[in-house]
Amino acid sequence: MSDFLPDSPTDHQPATEACPDCGGPVHTDGSEQYCRVCGLIIEDQPITTEIRALYDHSGPQSSTTQRAKQPTAAHREQTLTEIGDNFDATGSPLDSRKRKRLVRLRREQRRAYYQSEQERSRTIATREIDRLIGALGLTTETRDQAIDLFDRAQSEQFVNGRSVESVAAACVYATCRLNKISRLFDEVARATSVPKQDAQTVYSRLVRDLSLPIPPRHPQNLIPRLATGLGISMETESAATELAAQLDNSSAFTDPAASLAASCISLATSPSADDTEIAALASISARTIRRVRSQIDESDQIHHPALDE
Question: N or C terminus: which one in the chain shows less Cβ crowding within 10 Å?
Fold first, then answer.
């Protein structure tokens, strides 16, 4: 053990004081001072605020004074006492004056959970992101990336003046787009508590202000998710994917990827296709599907067996 611990600067020091009892020499051994003549212990285990680090294999570490690690906001929230209901110890309801006082106390206690407004916003955003990730069936890695994106937005003062829930929803959808995960914005909007238009506006500003490299969405990447929701066969899904790839490579079709993917599913499942069901799953209108299908039928650049039937 002596090879890994630094020598104490007070180990085996010569006597520098006299014993207050008999006047004999005082000896210092580690953290203990005692008289050599009468054995009186003068000082034992003095209090110090210095933390001496152990030696490691690479060499000694310098002694330093460290501060205890502060508990996280979630830990503080779990350990603080919750102010209870509006009843006294006997179960009788309190009067209006005392109920108002408890409301104020609960409000101040909730504020005391956090050291700053930024910490409070991050805790709320983390809960909202966790809820959205679970509702959308996404992975833990996607959750961590969404939280990192929120931290970046918060560090750049993007959250100020905006709903934390809308920013959290925008971060989740932006993370899906950055990782090319086939999730529609309407799926995120249905899972969040904020209006779709507000969340969509925050997402657009988030992409612009943080200069996020959002890749373009390809219709063939949305086919598997739509096919799973409709329960179509693998052959039909493959035919729709091939048709969507042709539309993606053609400059004549500028509709959103969801509209093109839904139209390809509709063509591949004809004549038994239910455009209303497909449109609902793709979060578009059945009229859009019919319009895109008409453009595909009139185009000379698209060749697919489904168009020849």
Answer: N
Within a domain: 304:
yes
In a 3-state reduction of DSSP, which class is residue 211? coil
Domain, as residue range, for 156: 117-209
* Count of domains forming the chain: 3
Alpha-carbon span 250 to 155, nearest angstrom: 41
Interacting residues of 157 by C-beta distance below 8 A, sequence separation 6+: none
Collapsing DSSP to helix, strand or coil, 44 comes out as strand
Per-residue pLDDT tens over the stretch 13-32: 444 577 887 878 887 776 67
For residues 309 and 299, give the distance between their C-alpha atoms in angstroms, rounded to a whole number: 16
4: left (phi over 0), alpha (psi -120 to 50) or beta: alpha
Residue 177 sits in the same domain as residue 238: no
For the stretch 20-78, pLDDT in tens is 878 788 877 766 777 877 777 776 555 544 444 444 444 444 444 444 444 444 444 44
Output phi, psi for 42, to 5 deg.
-90, -40
Residue 246's CATH number: 1.10.472
Q: What does the alpha-carbon distance between residue 34 and residue 12 come to, in Å, rounded to a whole number? A: 12
**Of 47, 65, 83, which residue is a domain's last?**
65
Of 24, 40, 65, the last residue of a domain is: 65
* Residue 255 located in a structural domain: yes
- Establish if 111 belongs to a structural domain: no
- Are 192 and 131 in the same domain? yes
Residue 101 lies in a domain: no
Q: How far apart are CA 46 and CA 257, in angstroms?
A: 72
Query: Would the pTM count as exceeding 0.85?
Result: no
* CA 210 vs CA 155, 173, 292: distances in Å: 11, 14, 34
Distance CA 84, CA 87 (A): 8
Any idea what the Cα angle at residue 72 is, between residues 70 and 74, rounded to 5°? Answer: 155
